[in-house]
Amino acid sequence: LAASTQPKRLVGKRVLLTAGPTFEAIDPVRGITNSSSGKMGFALARACAEAGAEVTLVAGPTAQATPQGVKRVDVISALQMRDAVFANLAKQDVFIAVAAVADYRPAKSVDHKIKKTNAKLTIELVPNPDILAEVAAKKHAPFCVGFAAESRDLARYAETKRKAKKLPLVVGNLVQDGLGGDDNSVTLFDARGAHPLPPGDKLDVARGIVEHIAGMLKKTKR
Ligand code: CTP
Ligand code: CA
């Protein structure tokens, strides 16, 4: 289906998303990151815009093109992503955290290249803030949607994350099904249970997720 024929289920809504990986610098030429193409997050931003929402996308380093009508804010690290999210959070109706945020960053980033020696090298890592959990814990939080990409026990881990972060909705997928590719197979977890979506192209899956979110927004009469 073409963009223009999509049902306008999110007219009048503001949606903020995160997408892509984050990159945590070790020195000026090295860093640690997560595997994430950004495809699912960008497809979801596009699907939200097609549905009539006003969309802001905070993106880590990816090769994806900005979807039409989407306001994009580029960031590198998790701390920058968190700052950009909070700077754009006012008046958002929905927050969708698709980004594969690095859970840890180097305790210190050094100004010059670390030089090679024959000795062991240890890099100390400190935990990054959980952007989604921080947003969801706010008073007057938007409707918060999390992603759970797991390598096993999807239902158990997705439900655990949904409850731990106090989210109305978690989109779960097995990394073997989605990572890097054009297709995905996801299950939506909400208070009513598990709802598998038909597997397909990431844009079709994104449109299915938007349908579900729009339905939940209607019920909660926000
Ligand atoms: N998330 C986030 N900020 C972080 C880590 C995760 O906003 N620092 C968001 C992700 O964008 C995703 C959800 O939280 O929507 C779950 O991320 P995930 O990495 O699957 O879960 P974690 O809580 O980090 O647990 P773990 O990596 O141990 O499975
Ligand atoms: Ca994580």
TrEMBL record:
Keyword Magnesium: yes
EC annotation from Swiss-Prot or TrEMBL: 4.1.1.36, 6.3.2.5
Span list, region Phosphopantothenate--cysteine ligase: 15-222
Pathway: Cofactor biosynthesis; coenzyme A biosynthesis; CoA from (R)-pantothenate: step 3/5; Cofactor biosynthesis; coenzyme A biosynthesis; CoA from (R)-pantothenate: step 2/5
Catalytic activity reported: N-[(R)-4-phosphopantothenoyl]-L-cysteine + H(+) = (R)-4'-phosphopantetheine + CO2; (R)-4'-phosphopantothenate + L-cysteine + CTP = N-[(R)-4-phosphopantothenoyl]-L-cysteine + CMP + diphosphate + H(+)
Domain DNA/pantothenate metabolism flavoprotein C-terminal: 10-215
Residue positions binding CTP: D103, K113, P129, D130, I131, L132, F147, K161, K165
Annotated keywords: Decarboxylase, Flavoprotein, FMN, Ligase, Lyase, Magnesium, Metal-binding, Multifunctional enzyme
BP GO annotations: coenzyme A biosynthetic process; pantothenate catabolic process
Co-factor note (free text): Binds 1 FMN per subunit.
Cofactor: FMN; Mg(2+)
GO molecular function: FMN binding; metal ion binding; phosphopantothenate--cysteine ligase activity; phosphopantothenoylcysteine decarboxylase activity
Gene Ontology terms: cellular component: phosphopantothenoylcysteine decarboxylase complex
Entry similarity comment: In the N-terminal section; belongs to the HFCD (homo-oligomeric flavin containing Cys decarboxylase) superfamily. In the C-terminal section; belongs to the PPC synthetase family.
Function: Catalyzes two steps in the biosynthesis of coenzyme A. In the first step cysteine is conjugated to 4'-phosphopantothenate to form 4-phosphopantothenoylcysteine, in the latter compound is decarboxylated to form 4'-phosphopantotheine.
Protein name: Coenzyme A biosynthesis bifunctional protein CoaBC
Organism of origin: Georgfuchsia toluolica
Lineage: Bacteria, Pseudomonadati, Pseudomonadota, Betaproteobacteria, Nitrosomonadales
Name of the encoding gene: dfp
